[in-house]
Structure formats: structure tokens, C-alpha cells
């Protein structure tokens, strides 16, 4: 569709001047073709470009001519554009004025020292991140202490709302997850233990692994995915819309208004969710043991009470408040790091989830070592 | 030049009706935009200025009416007509609407990628030219939208809208959120580009200074239609409560009586 352009080149015999005649449309559609053709022509002499028969010239065409002018002028040769139409003159003039001067961006440092610097900065940033998290934890405890002295400052409505969101609404997913874990443990355990004729120990296997580790750990991971992201998204979008700054100017403390109800709700709800997970895990395990191994529910119960120490339940649930603090503090901290744009909100939200899950697993490992040392 | 320009409407809107649920935004709205002019569309909040822009650019399906842009029926156009039309107009959204994962230069290159046979090096040089034409420094091309100020983002958005030398550019509140100096510079930029590239500009604005400095004609949206259209002088004579308040209010007096001749110098 009108993409034709002809390039005619006449070399003057006496070397006084060459004439380049362009016919057709000199537009963004044809500029590559003309550019390629010009590369094949040796431009030695003063050059006249005749655009009298160019039916349309857009900024791309004008750029081609301006670029040619600039390149020839750099080597001391002259160029004259002839027979421009009034419209082309306007375009050509504005393009000539706007021709960008290329600048090289300042190159960043490279090599060993850059690597060293990047490593150092990463270490400093990581340390700073841990310090900040500790700071937020301290802030939470400080506000908690304050609220205990002045109970009227506690936002009870917010606390209940968050407790519903964090706890009550998470019950179905947590219960289902724990039930399935119980089923899987019973199924896998029975397959192994049957080889030794020790099917009945599947009860101990389920009870100890669910009560001690899996029930609370998997609950915390699900809550980290659900709640840490929700905290970050909520606080981060408030940060983006300057609501946090508005609060500060109105004399409201973001830590009391935003962090305290959220983390406190999590602190109250996570042990309850862990308990539900424990019960559902045992239930799933008992069901599967009954179906697969023929261990009746009453036998399961008898074996459970006889073979499993109550300390296992304690060891499991005592971790819940710590996990809750980790998830809540990481979520709130990430929300406060959100900058004014939507990408940082998305990035911080996924960061919060990854950090919270990772920190929960690290804490769980530390607990394991601790309990092994004290012999619980 | 306005004499023969008046002959050819490049945008023709007839009987446009837009409604959201039971809320009617436009009813029997008629609008003409002529080649080469800068049309300012004004109106109170909620009179559907942006909805009109979105309707004309095909982003919003109206309930009734016909819209023709450059002789193409926007509402019933087929895929091929749509593609050619997309190359012949450019839209600058309020905050630039730059793709945040691309640098400014890559953003400006995006429309040019649809040109068959355009070599990547030339595309890059042309993008640099557009970036320079809207008054951004050369190194701004390597930056990401998040690293730019609001005014620079708007300029980059304009550079992307101008990438393929469109015949019409739609500007949604080009000076909103800019400081007076930046806004005046942007006005001058639009005026100069319009004149030197022969652009037709459809401009939604609240800015009285912009109307005064660069707009050839003004259309006032009120009572669900284009209430009046004409030059600024015509507007000053209109006897309608909203129009009178708008063009005779204290801010309008300050804008029209003040020494703004330097930004208006381009007009004959």
C-alpha cells in the first residue's frame, strides 16, 4: 500500500556535485530501504538531495535526511535538500531541531571490586532487614504493653474482624489439609510397617508426627501464604495511597491501629488453628488406619492414649505463638516497605510470603534442636 | 489555514449515547473535529469527557450513535480497518500509561514494531528522535517509567503516541498534576508539534491556561451533550450558567487576562 520509493543517484562527471533524487513516499515504511540503498552509494562530493517528487515525508523520512546531513557534516561535506514542500519543510525543521545527541550512559563499575561491593551491600541489606524485623517485633511488644496498661486504646472491632479473617475463614482449608496429611501418613506408614507386622505402630507414627511437627508446621505455612500476603497487600496499598502518612498527621499510630490488631489476632488464632489441624490429622489417620489396616477407632484411641505422651501436644502447640509472631511481623514489615507504585506492592507481597514461610521453617528447625537438647 | 481546514472533519460523532446501568452519560451527542485543529473538550466532573475519548478510540462501546474517524466507522470496523486506524491515531493517557516493565525507548518502539521491514537500529534511532522531540533528555530513553517524574512520564507517553506520526492524537488531561511551568511547557510542546507535524489534537482538559494558549476550538460538555462548540471568544458570549461560570470565574479571568502571550505566540 504505497510503500514504493525510488532512489535515483546521478554522479556529476566533473565532481562538482552529486544529485540524489527521491521519488515516492519517504515514510517509516520505506526508510529502511532508502537507508540500505544509501549505504551502497559512496558519497564523496557536495550532495544535492532532491525531494521534489516525494509525495509524503513523515518524521522518519525527515530523520533519514537529517541523519545524512549530520553524518556528512561531521566529515566536512555539504548537503542541500532541494524542492521541499511546505509541509515537508515544517517536519524537516522540527526534526532537525530535535535530532538527539547520543550520549554514552555512565558505565557502572565492573569486575572483582564490583562483585565485592555487591556482596558487601547484600550483607548490609540482609543485616538491616533482620534488624528492622527485630525492630517491628519490639514495636509490637511495646504497643502490646501500652495497650495492656490502657485497654481502651485496643481496637477491639478491628481485632475481632482480623481474628475472623485470619482464623475462622482459614478453618476449612487448614482442616482439609490436616485431614489429608493424616490419611497420607496412615497410608504410607501402614505400607512400611506391615512388612514387620507392626501395623499397630502406625498410631504412634501418626500421633507423634502430626502432634509434634506436621500439624502446626503445615498450618503455619498455609497461614503464612494466606495471611502474610493479605497483611502486606492491605498495609502496602494503604502506604501507596498515603493513608499511613495521613494517619501519622492525624495523631494515629500505625503500629497501634494496624499492626497490633493484626498480629494479636494471628497470635490468638494460630494455636486454635493448630489444635484443629491436630484433631483433623488424627481423625484422617484414624479413618485410614481403620479402612486400610482394620484398626478400629476404639483400638486407635486406646493405643493413642497409651502410647503417646501429652508432651507431644505441648511441643507442637508451644511453637504456634512464635510462628504467629513471625508471620505477622514479616507481613506488616513488608507492607510498610511498599513504595508508591503497584509493582513494588506485588513484589513485596510475594517477598512477604517467601520470607514468612522460610522463617517459619527455620524457627521449626531451631525448636527441634532445642527440644532434642532438653529431652522433651 | 483554518479556512480550508474547516472543510474536512476527521472525527464525526453523531447521536452518541453512553450509559452505565441507568445512568445516562451522553445523549444525542454530536461532535466534529476538523483536520489540523486543536480541540479542547471541557466540562464539569462526571460529564463524561474521558468516556467520550474512550468511545471515539473504541475502548468503550456506546449504547447508540455513530462514530467516524478518518472516514472509518469505529463501531463496526473490521480487523484490517482497525489496524490501519491504530497506526493513524495516538492516545496519551493521563499518567502516560507506559508499560512499566520496559524502558522509555522500548515503550516508544512498541508501535513501530508493527511496521514490516523496519530495521531495529533505525527503529531505535527513531525512538530516540521521538524522545528528543517531546523534550526529554537522551539518557531518559534508558530509564524505566518508575524512575521518571510525572511530567516526564507524560512526555514519554506523548512520544509513544507520536511514534508512528499519527494524524490525530488524543490527550487525556495532558497538564493535570504538572506544576505551572511544566504545564506551560507541555502546552507549548503540543502547540508546536501540532503545527509542525500537522497533527489534529483532541484534548480533554480542565486547564484554562491550556485552552487559552493552544486550543483553536473548544467544545463544552454539559447536559449530556456538546452544549456549545467554538472559539474562546464565542465561549465568552455563551449565556448558560455553567459555561458562564466556567469562562467568567475568577480562575478564568486570571488565566485569560494574565500575561500569557508568550505561550500563545504560535497562533496566527
Write the topology of this structure.
The complex is a heterodimer of chains A (376) and B (268).
Chain A (H helix, E strand, L loop, with lengths): L4 E6 L7 E9 L4 H9 L7 E11 L1 H16 L4 E4 L3 H13 L12 H39 L6 H11 L4 H23 L8 H39 L2 H7 L4 H40 L3 H11 L2 H8 L1 H18 L5 H33 L2
Chain B lengths: L1 H4 L3 E12 L2 E12 L3 E6 L5 H8 L7 E6 L2 E2 L5 H10 E4 L11 H9 L7 H14 L16 H12 L6 E5 L7 H18 L2 E5 L3 H7 L2 E6 L2 E6 L1 H6 L3 H8 L1 H8 L11
Parallel strand pairs in B: 3-8, 3-9, 6-7, 7-8
Antiparallel strand pairs in B: 1-2, 1-4, 4-5, 9-10
Helix pairs in contact in B: 4-5, 4-6, 5-6, 7-8
Description:
The complex is a heterodimer of chains A (376) and B (268). Chain A has 376 residues and is α/β, with parallel strands linked by helices. Chain A has two domains: 5-98, 2-Layer Sandwich (Transcription Regulator spoIIAA); 143-374, no CATH class. Chain A is built from 13 helices and four strands. Chain A has helices spanning 31-39, 59-74, 86-98, 111-149, 156-166, 171-193, 202-240, 243-249, 254-293, 297-307, 310-317, 319-336, 342-374, and strands spanning 5-10, 18-26, 47-57, 79-82. Chain A has a four-stranded mixed beta sheet with strand order 1-2-3-4. In chain A, a hairpin with a 7-residue loop joins β1 and β2 (18-26). Chain A is elongated and about 115 Å long. Chain B has 268 residues and is an alpha/beta fold. In chain B, 39% of the residues lie in helices and 24% in strands. Chain B has helices at 2-5, 49-56, 79-88, 104-112, 120-133, 150-161, 180-197, 208-214, 232-237, 241-248, 250-257; strands spanning 9-20, 23-34, 38-43, 64-69, 72-73, 89-92, 168-172, 200-204, 217-222, 225-230. A six-stranded mixed beta sheet of chain B has the order 6-7-8-3-9-10, with helices on both faces. In chain B, β9 (217-222) and β10 (225-230) form a beta hairpin. In chain B, α4 (104-112) crosses α5 (120-133) and α4 (104-112) packs parallel to α6. The model of chain B is unreliable at 1-5 and 260-268 (pLDDT under 50). The interface between A and B is medium-sized, with 29 and 29 residues.
